[in-house]
Amino acid sequence: MKFGPDVQITRRCFENILKIYVNIDQQIQGFNVDIPLGMSRTPFQEICDIFKTYCNTKNFFLPSHLDIVTQCINVEILIPLFKYYLPKLFNVEMTFVMPIIEVADNANHNTDIIQKSSTKKKENKLILEEWKQMLYNISISDESRSDVFQDYFREFIAKLPTS
């Protein structure tokens, strides 16, 4: 069974995977470990690979996800957003090339589950306006955000044309 990238279930699955990955990132930060306590390497790697599969397929990041990722220090979450998707959306220089990974095609990782599609121009304009508003509302010096997030955010904002 394949799911289209523009189907609600696919977007909700990405959001759930993103929340899980961010939660794992926070657990790793809190306990200063490589994988979360109580989780073996295999399920942890599965979550990472599923996230990367979504990122390789389409930009599933929405402006509402900014609130989710503000505490992240994991560059595997922040780089696709700030060095690929947002620069592509805002038509500024991209410093990151997709795909993130080539996932082995086996029973556990089928990269063709999510069909690729092109985003419509009208949809892009609406998304761009939502992102502009969300980015405008973020304070660069908000101390509730991780330093790593702040660095990527500042770097991206500096690339935007001033007009």
From TrEMBL:
It comes from the Eukaryota. This is 16494_t:CDS:1. It comes from Dentiscutata erythropus.
